[in-house]
Amino acid sequence: MVEMNKQTHAEKMHSENGSEVTKEQDVTANTSGKDSMTDNVTDANGTTPAGEASKENESTDFEAKYNELNDSHLRLRAEFDNYRKRTLREKADLIKMGGETALTGLLPVIDDFERALDTVKKTEDVSAAVAEGVELIYNKFMTYLAQQGVKPIEAIGQPFDTELFEAVATIPAPEEALKGKIVDCVQRGYTLYDKVIRHAKVVVGE
């Protein structure tokens, strides 16, 4: 009877030990399964360090390419704006200065008008009506030229400037204040807008 109890007790212990081993195996299996699932989720979401580094490199490359294209676009746009402005300016200058040759050819005619006007004023035989008619034509002519941008260069009493004047002679200055300045104008000069189309021929005091 005692032996049967010992045998029963041994079987019970063996059964309990087997159950504990089975539980330990189940826990180990569950832990391993969870780790495996965690690894799978990590790989699926791409959150590994290697994946993050790859994404950062792609983002950096994209940003560099964008900056390069943007800079190129801005440069091309600036160059086109400069070209457009330059073209418009050249076109305006061409229109403004297009009649330079024709207007320059009229300057000797103006010189003749001025000589005729001086002669008429100094000659007593010429009637006042004729003198008035010549002066009227001269004034209309000068008004038309002024509308086209042609203006006479003021000379008498001005400091000598090689950009505007051509010295044909020098004489002792009649007074101290006229030294280095223009004391007489032999031929009047003209500008077309801001461009000199004929230098004034002058006499300079020294």
TrEMBL record:
Comp. bias (Basic and acidic residues): 1-26
Single GO cellular component term: cytoplasm
A Pfam family the protein falls into: GrpE
Keyword Cytoplasm: yes
InterPro entries: GrpE, GrpE_CC, GrpE_head
Location in the cell: Cytoplasm
CDD domains attached to this UniProt entry: GrpE
Recorded superkingdom: Bacteria
Keyword entries, A-Z: Chaperone, Cytoplasm, Stress response
BP GO terms, sorted: protein folding
One GO molecular-function entry: unfolded protein binding
Polar residues: compositionally biased ranges: 27-48
Region (Disordered): 1-60
Main location: cytoplasm
Assembly and binders: Homodimer.
Job description of the protein: Participates actively in the response to hyperosmotic and heat shock by preventing the aggregation of stress-denatured proteins, in association with DnaK and GrpE. It is the nucleotide exchange factor for DnaK and may function as a thermosensor. Unfolded proteins bind initially to DnaJ; upon interaction with the DnaJ-bound protein, DnaK hydrolyzes its bound ATP, resulting in the formation of a stable complex. GrpE releases ADP from DnaK; ATP binding to DnaK triggers the release of the substrate protein, thus completing the reaction cycle.
Family indicated by similarity: Belongs to the GrpE family.
Descriptive protein name: Protein GrpE
Organism: Tannerella forsythia (Bacteroides forsythus)
Taxonomic lineage: Bacteria, Pseudomonadati, Bacteroidota, Bacteroidia, Bacteroidales
